[in-house]
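Researcher: We're teaching a course module on how sequence relates to structure. For the next exercise, students receive a sequence and then see the predicted structure as tokens, so they can try to spot secondary structure elements on their own. Here is the exercise chain.
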Amino acid sequence: SPRSPGRRDATATIAATRRRPGDRGDGVSRRARGTEAVARARIAGKPVPEDARSSAAPTVESVEDEDRMKNFSGTCARAERGGVVALEGMRSAAPPGAVLRFADGGRAVLLSHREPKTFALMFDGGEGGERRRTGDGARAVGKTAEASKTEFVWGPSARATRGKIVDAFGEARDGSAMVTGTEDSSKMMREPPSVEERKPITTPLVTGIKAVDLLAPVGRGQCMLVSGEPGTGLSELGLTSIVAQRSTGVRCVYAALGAQASRVDEVAKRLEGDGAMSHTTIVTVDDEPSEAERYAATCTAFAIAEGARALGEDVLLVLDDFTGLVNFTKDMARMAPQLNVAEGTEEQMEEYEGMLISASLAERRRFLGMTLQRVARMNDKLKGGSITLMGVMYHPKGAYKKTFKSGVEGAGSGGAVLPSSVESIKGFDSMPAAVQEKLRKALEEKAKAAHVSTADDEFPESAFVQSRPMVEEFMSITDGQVFVDSYDPAKGWIISAKDSVSRIGAPGAAGPFRSLNFLQLRLDLMQSDDMGTFGSAGTEKSKLRSRSEAIRGFLKQKQGEVASLAEQTVGLFAIQKGFANNKTAEEVEDMLAKAVKRATETMREELEYINTNPSSALSEETMTKLETLLRNL
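Model: And here is the predicted structure for the students to work with:
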């Protein structure tokens, strides 16, 4: 899996070495062979061959021997809005998260390296040591900065931030002093846990959303993508999941980084009203943030979650949305144009974890993977805590419809980039008439697609849409996805049974669901949809259509409703045992409401046990009582 930790060793480095002109045809570069020879010689305790030493990739040790100061110092070559700066000359020995100090006293946090440039976000320091973003990085241009080997930017204490709103640097909005350096504090940026530090995902995290818990269950320690068009209620889905944890002991961090950043106070009031703010920290950005600030806020949200995990707590981290993580990679590529490799050159492709992909894509996947791999369930020696990630990403309207033109949509993310008019096409007048006509039609299609994509601009999240290729890249590096087809406040979310999947599978699902063969629901919905598309008349189709309608009636959920595990178990039992057969969705909804009410009155202890022991299977006694209840309803 691209997310698998433990691959960040010399072998992975060799595998990711970029091919160069003159390399051997089998795909192994001279540099890779040299690096491997050096590693083998050192392991064997033998002298390193001179030809291998000269061709090997530089190591941290060799670079430090070359010039120790150049490792940790660089000159600011460019600055942009929001205090984002690009430096030259600083080698990758300086780790992300380190504090940079400029000669004039300015400071910044090192965010990332993309050879030959280093990217950082400047900040101002107060008398009390607090950090605030600076609006101007221009003063740093031409100045030298040195990265500290001992001073790093840390996130705030997880305990101290309960019930608070903090900014990209972890400073509380209410003005209270940041508490950090405690056992429940973590660096803003850090290496992901190793394989040895993790343990398998076997405990469910119940989101309170029936369609998610049953069709794409989330386990504690899992990394899930949540995707849909603007207007499909993805923020509401994340907030409902947080509200569902109010009596479970799960700590929550909500990062409002996209459209929700402008309505953080409303979000806090909503969580307060639902009794969920006391176990939640909200991380957000200031007005008109740079993409680097959004990325820094993403890392701070991770740091707070890691602080709570260090105490042995289970944490739900909702990133709303992935904008900072994605767009910061685009900003780095834009600020370092020499990193873009010309089409058709041998350097364009490189091997990455067994795949041959473009060099820029390999660089981006490494960057994204280092962040997402911080999601994990820790082993018992490290107190057994976990971070579960639900990350929001909006895709374009119609991106997953049959009529969608993927070539136009892919622009800017691996697809063809079309100009805005024929006037901007170099040499257009000298092109053959047939080519000119094709280009005109392509531009017309692009204009139509742009019109469609802006038709829903009444949704604030429309400004934070990512391309379909980017969504699918995240699908490939996460542990599954919740794919939302539509949302109605009165009927809840329609989750795509075909496109939503949990790659953890049954181990991440609730115990009662496993007892009732919950996986059959997803299969039945998919089969029903296929029959509706491709036809299949007769009794079988009628039976499947009836079951599909019963399932959809069961999954219906109004905005603000949180379905407990016990409530979902009652409904699933009724569906699986045939009590919903030959009923309409409305009849099923009505029947299950009565069943849950009756169970609450007559099976209080059993329901309480289900809610407090989500991993436990249903006992025979409980199943007998549920069957009796439904027969007598």
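Model: If you want an answer key for the exercise: The longest helix spans residues 433-453. The two ends are 48 Å apart (CA to CA).
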